[in-house]
Write a structure and sequence with these properties.
This protein has about 280 residues and is of the alpha/beta class. It has helices at about 15, 40-45, 60-75, 95-100, 145-150, 160-170, 210-225, 230-245, 250-275; strands spanning about 1-10, 30-35, 50-55, 80-85, 90, 110-115, 130, 140-145, 175-185, 190-195, 200-205. The radius of gyration is 19 Å and the shape is globular.
């Protein structure tokens, strides 16, 4: 059996409508709602009896909500769980692509990932599959038992960096992440700002709020200290470059990013202290 898990946070009508992409293709739709008010009536009108709904008006965060959703999936005898961001939508029928692969993949494949298409991406669909080091969470199909065995997502990361951390732990535990070239997802990782020179678009960058940059920098600092990965050092440097050269309201961003650097280091120190004990 396959479940779909989606975490809502003050969704608009379009985000709720995205559930129509997959609700009829899975056995259970598990909605973890971090919104201040309940969206249960709107969800029941779409999903019906396959819906399992949990409301957290205090906002427990993306990581904790997904971990609870995975446990609910296991309790309902689902072996695999499709995790969806509320603003992501299907370009191809990724559930059908995954189902065709489930009988043929190796037992150590813990995540099946789609190709994420967005306006800053150069990725394109392709035929076949390949092993990758990291995948964004939305649209991924997780082996529920292995996910829970590994401890799930790191809840201290709250909303950012949980996918990077989990993928690195996946490889540490000798499991694999497989990208499926025919599973294609429309994704929205932050707003896009166009950088122009002489009225021509030179490149595009992602822009989030100062608070989100705090959380992103915090998680990146943690990941760099924990896993010592050059890729994430480059990602951290690029975020600073974007803010310093291309963002407005730089002061607020810089204050939040300095706080994120400090708190990410504190998170790593707490991890090291716990590891020694």
């Amino acid at each position: 059996m396959i479940a779909a898990i989606v975490v809502l946070f003050e969704p608009n009508t379009k985000e709720i409508e995205h559930i129509k992409d997959y609700y009829a293709k899975v056995d259970k739709v598990i909605v973890m709602d971090n919104s201040s008010k309940s969206f249960l009536p709107a969800l029941l009108s779409i999903v019906g009896t396959n819906l399992i709904y949990k409301h957290f008006p205090e906002n427990i965060g993306l990581s904790a909500a997904l971990n609870q959703g995975m446990q609910i999936a296991k309790n309902n005898h689902c072996s695999w769980a499709l995790v969806m961001d509320s603003d992501s939508s299907f370009i191809t029928d990724i559930v059908d692509v995954y189902c065709r692969l489930l009988t043929t993949i190796e037992s150590n494949v813990v995540v099946l990932s789609p190709v994420h298409i967005h306006d800053r991406s150069s990725l394109e669909p392709y035929t076949g599959c390949k092993i990758v080091k990291w995948a964004m969470t939305s649209g991924c199909l997780f082996n529920v038992d292995i996910f829970l065995k590994m401890g799930g997502f790191m809840e201290e990361l709250f909303v950012d960096g949980l996918d990077i951390d989990f993928c690195y732990r996946t490889r540490e535990n000798n499991y694999l992440i497989m990208e499926c070239g025919e599973a294609v997802l429309r994704h929205y990782p932050a707003n896009t700002k166009e950088i122009k020179l002489l009225n021509r678009i030179v490149f595009k960058i992602g822009v989030s709020s100062p608070l989100r940059y705090y959380m992103q920098i915090r998680s990146l600092r943690w990941i760099i200290l924990r896993y010592r990965t050059p890729r994430d050092c480059v990602a951290l440097l690029w975020k600073w470059i974007k803010v310093l050269f291309f963002f407005e309201n730089k002061k607020e961003y810089i204050l939040q990013m300095h706080k994120g650097m400090k708190d990410g280091k504190q998170l790593y120190r707490a991890y090291k202290k716990q590891s020694i004990q």
